[in-house]
Amino acid sequence: MLTPSPVRLRAFRALARARAYSVPAAAHSKKHIVNIVEVGPRDGLQNEKGAVIPVETKVELVERLVRAGVSNVEAGSFVSPKWVPQMGGTADVLKRLTKERGVHYSVLVPNQRGLDDLLLLLAQQQQQQLTDSGSPPLTDEISVFVAATDRFNKANLNCTVLESLQKIAAVTETATKHGLRVRGYVSVVIACPYSGATDYDKVREVASALLNMGCYEVSLGDTVGMGRPHEVAEMLDVVKRSVPVEQLAGHFHDTYGTAIANVLTALEHGVRTIDASVGGLGGCPYSPGATGNVSTEDVLYALQGSKYHVAGRNGGTINLEEMVDIGWWISEKLGRESASRVGRALRARNSKTTTSK
Ligand SMILES: CC(C)(COP(=O)([O-])OP(=O)([O-])OC[C@H]1O[C@@H](n2cnc3c(N)ncnc32)[C@H](O)[C@@H]1OP(=O)([O-])[O-])[C@@H](O)C(=O)NCCC(=O)NCCSC(=O)C[C@@](C)(O)CC(=O)[O-]
Q: In what residue span(s) does the Pyruvate carboxyltransferase domain sit (predicted)?
């Protein structure tokens, strides 16, 4: 095999980089604009075993993600710290974050108690603003969640799907009255760790119920990360019978290595919002063995130079190189390597380029 000289190799890499980054946003039609919801700070960190991650680290993570161009980020959750200790400091995270305009810092809320805690925090901030005016709200968005199967819902939310929907209806109504927008999740849309293959009609019914309650979007979660592209396609075909595809998002865990293929399948089926996690962080406390979400870096890389354009903050895009750095930084804080394939490849390439100079 012919081995290229270091000079040719560098020139080739520079050309590849230029090509990858050179498709101007204006060249993409509006119908191919893709939004990313960065779930690393919530879905990614919630399942971390060991010591509780300091609030400062979480704040730095969110702020770095926003500086890299992220405009939708899940900053934490108002859930029971007894069950999910890593999310315990979310109120402090919201208070300490320097907020950028145009960015949604959403939080996951499981029940009325979680919403009450959040509303109290927002009321306190409003009172403070009487003396210290001008700062944006701590958050303008919550996410609610329910599964497509009773068994998963009982493990995750301590009640049946129907009971959850009743609670969510009340939470959504109150949140909306307080000016918060509400995003919905449906978990285990392909397979459930407790009851096997999911009935896609159930996914359709639950997604439809969430939208009817006032959620502006519903994210469909392959929580277990077992889904294959043809299953994602079949599931979407069923859900789209009742739900406009513009109001759907895809949330794919990568347990079986199919997440990026599932993202591409969802995009080809018209879905335009993808949940992703920097460094491929994550797992679900109620889905044994499930690994992290599709990594944000992998999604950005897969779409570079394609017909799709990933929208970033203030009309820009999300910077892949910065996301790779963040993925490595947070993974090292957690005592391991980045789980992002692209993160690993780019780091290896960059270190080779540096040593061959
Ligand atoms: C499910 C519930 C709400 C049931 O809460 P419960 O019905 O009150 O029952 P419980 O026995 O679980 O309650 C435990 C304790 O938590 C308290 N509590 C109750 N609610 C809250 C709250 N909001 N904030 C703070 N504390 C709360 C409650 O008052 C009680 O306190 P104690 O009496 O023992 O002192 C609770 O157990 C809980 O918060 N569980 C954690 C659920 C969770 O965070 N799951 C992971 C996120 S979902 C996910 O990852 C899937 C997703 C969204 O990413 C999409 C996908 O991939 O599929």
A: 34-324
- Among protein residues, the one whose CA lies closest to atom 16 of ligand 1: 80
Strand locations in the chain (E):
33-38, 72-77, 104-108, 141-147, 181-187, 191-192, 196-197, 217-222, 248-252, 273-276, 309-311
The enclosing domain of 239 has a CATH number of 3.20.20.70
* Spacing, Cα 110 to ligand 1 middle (Å): 6
Q: How remote is the CA of residue 247 from the centroid of ligand 1, in Å?
A: 26
Complex-level ipTM: 0.96
Pick the closest to residue 274 from 339, 214, 217, 213 (CA basis).
Answer: 217
Nearest CA residue ID for atom 45, ligand 1: 156
Q: Tens place of pLDDT for every residue, the chain, 357 residues?
A: 334 444 444 444 444 444 444 445 555 788 999 999 999 999 999 999 889 999 999 999 999 999 999 999 999 999 999 999 999 999 999 999 999 989 999 999 999 999 999 999 999 988 887 656 667 889 999 999 999 999 999 999 999 999 999 999 999 999 999 999 999 999 999 999 999 999 999 999 999 999 999 999 999 999 999 999 999 999 999 999 999 999 999 999 999 999 999 999 999 999 999 999 999 998 666 767 778 999 999 999 999 999 999 999 999 999 999 999 999 999 999 999 999 999 999 999 888 766 665
Collapsed DSSP state (helix, strand, coil) of residue 328? helix
Residue 19 makes CB contacts below 8 A (sequence gap 6+) with 305
Supply the residue whose CA is at minimum distance from atom 52 of ligand 1. Answer: 187
In the chain, the number of structural domains is: 1
Q: Which domain holds residue 107?
A: 28-356
Q: Considering the domain boundaries, does residue 194 fall inside one?
A: yes
**pTM for the structure as a whole:** 0.91
Judge whether 284 counts as a catalytic residue: yes
